[in-house]
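Hi support team,

I've been running sequence recovery on a batch of backbones for a student project. Most finish fine, but this one hangs at about 90% for roughly twenty minutes before it completes. I'm not sure whether the input is malformed or the queue is just slow. I've pasted the structure tokens below so you can try to reproduce it. Let me know if you need the job ID as well.

Thanks,
M.K.
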């Protein structure tokens, strides 16, 4: 049975969405194409009609995950226009976000994997990091663009590091201490 162009485009977007979540949960090498396509409700054969390689899907799924993450930061900030940075910090450094393996921050979930990937995958991550920095930069008070950029880099680095550490320890109190300490310091920096 032949699939219409519109349905093929929808199928492609569905595979990218499913892959962005499953890669965050299992890592890029932690799930095979067969299981990934099954989760998307398609056959493995359909994969090769949509993507040139798994690397192609990894780059596109990474881009999708990072765009979604940036949107979540923006939404959190918009919910508290009086203090958008505090809202973004509260969202990102929350225990709820810490528990979100499939929908949480792709930089935390896949950063180490991405460092070993192709330039295309790294380009997706670089664009996502730049978008995060841009969102943070709009929330930070500074006397110059250079100061705003430096503060944004410091805050993003601290927040990603804290979330990574919170996710890798078993002790919930230790995990919470990473999140709380960085939340306080990020507010001080801003």
């Amino acid at each position: 049975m032949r699939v219409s162009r519109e349905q093929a485009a929808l199928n492609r977007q569905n595979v990218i969405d499913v892959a962005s979540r499953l890669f965050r949960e299992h890592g890029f090498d932690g799930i095979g194409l067969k299981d990934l396509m099954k989760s998307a409700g398609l056959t493995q054969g359909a994969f090769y009609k949509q993507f040139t390689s798994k690397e192609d899907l990894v780059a596109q799924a990474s881009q999708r995950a990072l765009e979604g993450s940036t949107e979540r930061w923006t939404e959190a900030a918009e919910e508290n226009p009086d203090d958008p940075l505090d809202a973004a910090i509260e969202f990102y450094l929350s225990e709820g976000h810490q528990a979100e393996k499939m929908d949480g921050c792709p930089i935390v979930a896949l950063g180490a994997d991405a460092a070993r990937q192709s330039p295309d995958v790294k380009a997706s991550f670089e664009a996502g990091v730049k978008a995060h920095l841009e969102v943070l930069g709009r929330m930070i008070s500074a006397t110059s663009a250079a100061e705003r950029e430096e503060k944004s880099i410091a805050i993003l680095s601290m927040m990603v590091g804290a979330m990574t550490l919170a996710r890798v320890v078993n002790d919930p109190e230790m995990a919470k201490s990473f999140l709380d300490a960085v939340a306080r310091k990020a507010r001080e920096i801003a």
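--
Follow-up from support: It reproduced on our side and the slowdown came from queue contention, not your input. The mean pLDDT is 94. No action needed from you.
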